[in-house]
Amino acid sequence: MPAKKKKPKIYSHSRLSTFEQCPLKFKFRYIDKIIPEIRATIESHLGKIVHDTLEWLYTQVKKGKIPSVEEIIIHYTEKWEEDYNEDIPIIKKGLTVKDYFNKGVEFIINYYTKHQPFEDNTLETEKKILIELDNKGEYKIQGFIDRLSHDVEKDEYGIHDYKTANNLPMQKQVENDRQLALYALAIKELFGMDKEVCLIWHYLAHDKKICSRRTNEELQNLKEETLKLIKQIEATITFPSNKSILCNWCEYKKDVCQVWNKNVEEKKETKQVELDIW
């Protein structure tokens, strides 16, 4: 009787980046599986609703209909109100919920104005990808592409990612981005390693688009580096904190993290939840 095949270990970019950002946060989220009292910030809420709205826009476009900007804002407003919770914290002083809501409106109007009539041949939105990192199929990366397009004339695929944060990276920084590069590997494995793939970040707060490409050699190196990082994570025994400004947006800072709250005691029995892996 043949040996039963091992179930693959599925990782995500967010899981890997959490470990790199703060090993202790990684432990709280993925090992202890602690349920934070507050699981979203106003920034993450804004990002979620803007992403949902742009996904809805391109879904309509694929159906042969281009919504008016007014229709899109109505959709955005309805989703904002539907998902908003008054307990969502605002970290930045001097800003209100209305300020963040209006930011989203501005992002969407600017994007709509620049890209209409949306003729870049969108193939899919929120496309699920799964990449095998090793020959045995033991380790995989899972993710979702915000939007995938195909330039027929150039025979080039475009992997689009929407960013709502205020920071605008330098070109050198995006050249080292792991997430979209892994997605490029998935698209090449799906459509052919000879295909050209362009990585496209839409920085909505700056109304700017940044593009980058990877060679097949760079993608192969990235696959090996990613697997190496996973093996490092699995071999880790102690999970130190990495105190930084990012702690202000951490869902564990107030009630769980002993680094910030010395009164927090280790709980012998931890509530657990099956978290999304992406």
Write a concise keyword list for the protein shown above.
alpha/beta, Lambda Exonuclease, Chain A, 8 helices, disordered C terminus
- What is the alpha-carbon Rg in Å? 20 Å
* Class by SSE composition: alpha/beta
Based on Cα principal axes, name the global outline.
globular
Number of domains: 2
The major β-sheet equals: 6 strands, mixed
Poorly predicted residue ranges: 267-278
- Following the backbone from N to C, one meets helices and strands in this order, namely EHHHHHEEEHHEEH
The multimeric state of the shown protein is single chain
Number of helices: 8
Query: Helical residue percent?
Result: 25-40%
- Write down the overall mean pLDDT: 91
> What is the β-strand count?
6
Percent of sequence in beta strands: 15-25%
Span from first to last CA? 35 Å
